[in-house]
Amino acid sequence: NQWLGLLGGGQLGRMFCMAAQRLGYKVLVLDPATNSPAGSVADGQVLADYLDDAGLAELAQRCVGVTTEFENVPALAMETLAASIPVSPSAFSVGVAQNRIEEKSYISGCGVPVAPHAPIRQAEDITAALETLLPGILKTARLGYDGKGQVRVKTLDDVKAAFDNLNQVECVLEKRLTLLKEVSVIVARDHQGECVTFPVAENHHRKGILATTIVPARIDDVMAAQARASAISIARALDYVGVLCVEFFVVEGMGLVVNEIAPRPHNSGHYSIDACVTCQFEQQARILAGLPLGDTRQHSPSVMVNLLGDLWFDAQGNEREPNWPGVLAMPEVKLHLYGKEQARVGRKMGHITVVAATLDRALEVAEAVRSLLGIGDDDD
Ligand code: ATP
Ligand code: MG
Ligand code: MG
């Protein structure tokens, strides 16, 4: 049995392990945490810091290739590994995705539009010329996720205050666009440059966190084809190897605009586990193992609902178990829990995928799931 290596122990890694194991591979996970979601289902664990030389050496020695499951994996760890075994995606691709400024210039470089923006590296960069970007959103260039590290700004004084509040770390000011919709495309590209995309997903958020993904997205076929083609252009330009998510805004008068990319499987692609012939995690395993890409065809319309830690607490703040028997009694519902030991508000604990004969039916069942579990409405 061949071993595949994984940097990171989160839920994306857990679902990667399960997909790789179905194909007969063993997975070795490197993560500092004991009982991590991926570590607890993996065939082997290296309990070490991502930059620990001995840990990385063990991964390199035992595995045929290494992949990653979190966005902010240290580029140095990937470079160290790449000196002795295949690593996908490359440290370069991950590096581009880790910095919003580089990310945007790379994407517009391949002819795909991004939101109007300007880098803010020091207080002197905040000048009257930025007025055209207001009202805007000031985002830290690095390390933000789930809407963290973002401040909405209306005036230049707001920008100055927000920049100070973010301790003057490197930021990007983006024009706030009026979004008609948010969609995403998962693209998988192998070592030979073969490339496939998954159907376009429509995403809805609550408090800055992905809440619901509806697939196929309710956009016209021309726009869907364009989103898939743009995702392929970006993957090609990066010479990307692995699974990549491209998030888009649909903007009145502008059409599709790329928001950001994630160099890994993505929450908005979880529907593929239950609704597609091959899921995003299996593609990641296939690519790493040098196997052909799988069929991305969606066999059932689907709605994915995220299960956040909020559900584990009642109105008084006491911990409780959500009504899983009730959920599992519903037809067309697949429940995925990530085995996290401690629930926290806003923490991703699992998801539900509704797979139905029609999208209308899937939406109806998702609504029933939400009301059974007490999940509030999406913000958008
Ligand atoms: P993720 O968890 O997806 O990685 P993130 O913290 O990296 O999130 P973004 O995806 O950049 O943050 O932004 C979060 C959400 O904020 C977007 O999905 C969108 O709803 C809204 N948003 C971000 N940028 C803009 C913009 N320029 N105009 C309008 N809305 C925006
Ligand atoms: Mg992000
Ligand atoms: Mg995002």
From TrEMBL:
InterPro entries: ATP-grasp, ATP-grasp_carboxylate-amine, ATP_grasp_subdomain_1, PreATP-grasp_dom_sf, PurK, PurK_C, PurT/PurK_preATP-grasp, Rudment_hybrid_motif
Protein name: N5-carboxyaminoimidazole ribonucleotide synthase
Job description of the protein: Catalyzes the ATP-dependent conversion of 5-aminoimidazole ribonucleotide (AIR) and HCO(3)(-) to N5-carboxyaminoimidazole ribonucleotide (N5-CAIR).
Pathway stated in the Swiss-Prot or TrEMBL entry: Purine metabolism; IMP biosynthesis via de novo pathway; 5-amino-1-(5-phospho-D-ribosyl)imidazole-4-carboxylate from 5-amino-1-(5-phospho-D-ribosyl)imidazole (N5-CAIR route): step 1/2
Keywords: ATP-binding, Ligase, Nucleotide-binding, Purine biosynthesis
EC class (word): ligase
Taxonomy, superkingdom: Bacteria
Reactions performed catalytically: 5-amino-1-(5-phospho-beta-D-ribosyl)imidazole + hydrogencarbonate + ATP = 5-carboxyamino-1-(5-phospho-D-ribosyl)imidazole + ADP + phosphate + 2 H(+)
EC number: 6.3.4.18
PANTHER family linked: PHOSPHORIBOSYLAMINOIMIDAZOLE CARBOXYLASE (PTHR11609:SF5), PURINE BIOSYNTHESIS PROTEIN 6/7, PUR6/7 (PTHR11609)
Span of domain ATP-grasp: 104-289
Similarity-based family: Belongs to the PurK/PurT family.
Subunit and interaction comment: Homodimer.
Keyword Nucleotide-binding annotated: yes
Lineage: Bacteria, Pseudomonadati, Pseudomonadota, Betaproteobacteria, Burkholderiales
Statement: the UniProt record of this protein carries the keyword Nucleotide-binding: yes
Listed GO MF terms: 5-(carboxyamino)imidazole ribonucleotide synthase activity
Binding site for ATP: 100, 139, 144-150, 174-177, 182, 205, 259-260
NCBIfam families named among the record's database cross-references: PRK06019.1-1, PRK06019.1-2, PRK06019.1-3, PRK06019.1-5, purK
